[in-house]
Amino acid sequence: MTDSKSVIPLESNPEIFSQLAAKLGLSPVLQFHDVYSLTDPDLLAFLPQPVYAIILLFPLTGGYEDYRKQQDANSQGYPNPEDVHWYKQTIGNGCGLYALLHALTNLPRDFITAHSSVSHLIDATRGKSVAETARHVEDLESQIKLDENYGVQGQTEAPAPESSVELHFITFIKGDDGHLYELDGRRAGPVDLGEATVENNHLLSDPKVAQKVQFYMDNTDDANKNNFAIMALAPSLD
């Protein structure tokens, strides 16, 4: 499956992600927040709890690409679609949208507005094939017009849609089966990280999440050590 189109990549900016999430149907009781540490208790204390999803921006290096391909080749299968919602990325540079949808569609349904875009996506793709769900995401992007409404926002100059951007968003969530999942549209399916060891969906308290993020940080090259950003979906401060 090849990219059907390309868009301007989203900036790792909680305000932009929160605005787009609200547009898609997220309840105002939740919003995105910057995460400055996964281990420092003083920095973590500033984050409202619980954290329902984590979005990681990280560099795509040659080492990571080799790791990704090897892991997918060795995969023994993926979870039942009822346990976790996952979407194959078919929009070039659209990983920010896929990361956001992976966060929103795996929330408890009470956090999603009825008859919203996300609510419709969940219902329309339940039990459907990878190709069918991918087309639904493409249709959703054409409705929200990422480039026009969100791609040019942010604090840095937006690259052209067709640019090769060596940064990528992925999402960590807790599935309905109680397992933690790494959701990446460029992978062959959801990555099961094992049973969650925390209650109330507070992902930052589960060591598996911190360990996986640290794994990516430890295995990048020196030139990309600072090209990481983390956002958490948690209760709003307003």
How does this structure look, described?
This protein is an alpha+beta fold and 238 residues long. The protein has one domain (5-235): Ubiquitin C-terminal Hydrolase UCH-l3, CATH 3.40.532. It is built from 8 helices and 8 strands. It has helices at residues 14-24, 41-44, 62-73, 95-105, 117-125, 130-144, 146-151, 207-218, and strands at residues 5-6, 30-35, 53-59, 91-92, 167-174, 179-183, 191-195, 229-235. Strands 2-8-3-5-6-7 form a 6-stranded antiparallel beta sheet, with helices on both faces. A two-stranded parallel ribbon has the order 1-4. Helix 5 (117-125) runs antiparallel to helix 6. The longest helix is centred in the middle third of the chain and has 15 residues, at 130-144. The chain is globular. The record marks 89 as: Transition state stabilizer.
Provide a concise account of the structure shown.
This protein has about 240 residues and is of the alpha+beta class. Helix content is about 35%, strand content about 20%.
